[in-house]
Amino acid sequence: MGVLKRFEQRLEGMVNGTFAKVFKSEVQPVEIAGALQRECDNNATIWNRDRTVVPNDFIVELSAPDYERLSPYAVQLGDELAGMVKDYAKQQRYTFMGTIKVHLERADDLDTGLYRVRSRTLAASESQPQAPQGHQQPGRGQQPSYQQPAQPAPQAYPSRPARPAPDRHAAPPRPAGMPPMPAAPPPGGAAVTRLPGTGVPAGSPAANTRRWVEINGTRHQISRATLVLGRSTEADVRVDDPGVSRKHCEIRVGTPSVVQDLGSTNGIVVDGQHTTRATLRDGSRIVVGSTTIVYRQAEG
Length: 300
Description:
Elements lengths: L2 H10 L16 H14 L2 E4 L2 E3 L3 E6 L1 H7 L3 H19 L8 E6 L8 E6 L88 E7 L2 E4 L4 E5 L6 E2 L10 E4 L5 E4 L6 E3 L2 E3 L1 E3 L5 E4 L2 E9 L1
Helix pairs in contact: 1-2, 2-4
């Protein structure tokens, strides 16, 4: 059973108790859990073949309505989310510098149902630094049991828009001599990604193409050869729509990219046409259930 599914079942077990009101909010705790997993994957730093370090201090920014609903349970929900991050890290063989903490914060520029995740790496030997101006950080979290490198300098939270979804699988070790991974995407857009397994030659214009999908105002980066969309927590991008199948369709990256129905109950509509397979262009609209997915690509 996957880490997200176990987390979801633990919360469902409390639905008649402490977390009864949590599940009425537009943003669901399992969505936040998935975003924290992606934040770990997207900020993993490979130290050597046996050690990949990921952030351990997270801020989840919520819209005012979602924050008001979730904030009374912030401590317990933060502990549950921190435990989920620890379980996911063990599964992916990630390590931490120090205590895992998850904080909820209000962001007045976000609409209901939207959220942002920011993260940084803090060493166990460092005392909790003062929060950036305008943010509140209640202290909570769980102490991981992983081996911790000594005395690195803490990193500041990057200030950036919501990060698109990266590949949820751990990156392979980088060969010696390769340049380090960039710490964050360039300002104003998603990071340029080289897509393994697509057959696109390195250095060609297609290799420098950024691809992502937009769902309800949120970007999800396409950073691997295929991207599965569906209602299941096992999908690469989860679409919370009762008309969407567990694994509804997938986008296959190439020249051109295509979308393929995966035997869903309600099928797909691409640019107004019912189909099982279609070629995608920048701005193509894919309708699954009652949700519209916009495919985007740009040379970067």
